[in-house]
Specification:
The protein contains 5 helices and 5 strands. It is of the alpha+beta class. It has 2 domains: about 1-60; about 85-195, Ribosomal protein S6/Translation elongation factor EF1B (Alpha-Beta Plaits, 2-Layer Sandwich). Strands 1, 2, 3, 4 and 5 form a 5-stranded antiparallel sheet that branches. A hairpin with a 2-residue loop joins strand 2 and strand 3 (about 125-135).
């Protein structure tokens, strides 16, 4: 078929083939290079914007650092939370506070038990179970003191029972009145400590 073409047709066909080869060469080589170049231009633009942001932040670095230190200090001095850094120290702190308060208000602690610590919205909730005996008046004073001081403490699962008096021998009237006034009290006391990220 090519042998039947005239000289002008052969030249035209050769020019067409050359243009097709050039188009193929441009498609295979130049287009990926152009695409890659555009990609790198976008990356350079993005990095330039990031660098500009970092420069602006660095200009105010001392101000941000001092503000950060102020926030850290205020968090350390925040008396609303238990001040201990670990769960075991926080439960010991909670037990110490409740023992001091109950002893100062004429109550007797029978036992304290550490319950499982739970995470709540970035804070660790430390819980102990307290069993004590006290009169109603002293119990109200103890509970008021526990829930109205700092760190914030919360009483839950409260059970109050009257004490059993042994019937084998009747105590004196004064001892009987005192025994009848005492209540067995069982409750959970919880406080919050800051989470690890704070």
């Amino acid at each position: 078929m090519i042998s039947r073409l005239t000289r002008n047709q052969s030249k035209f066909f050769a020019v067409i083939l050359l243009l097709l080869a050039l188009a193929l060469l441009v498609t295979v080589i130049a287009l990926p290079v152009w695409s890659m170049n555009r990609h790198y231009d976008d990356q350079i633009s993005s990095m330039t914007n990031q660098l500009e942001t970092y420069r602006r932040v660095a200009m105010h670095g001392d101000q941000y650092q001092s503000e950060y230190q102020r926030l850290v200090k205020s968090q350390r001095n925040d008396r609303r939370y238990l001040q201990s850094a670990t769960e075991s120290l926080a439960t010991a702190e909670l037990q110490r506070k409740v023992k001091q308060l109950i002893a100062g208000k004429q109550g007797d602690i029978l036992s304290t038990q550490v319950l499982q610590t739970t995470e709540e919205e970035g804070f660790s909730r430390v819980v102990i179970r307290v069993r004590m005996k006290s009169t109603l008046e002293d119990m109200l004073s103890i509970f008021h003191s526990l829930e109205s001081q700092k760190p914030y403490l919360f009483i839950s699962d409260l059970t109050i029972r009257s004490r059993q008096v042994a019937r084998r021998r009747l105590p004196s009237t004064k001892e009987l009145n005192k025994a009848l006034r005492l209540l067995d009290i069982d409750f959970q006391l919880s406080g919050y400590m800051r989470g690890e990220k704070s």
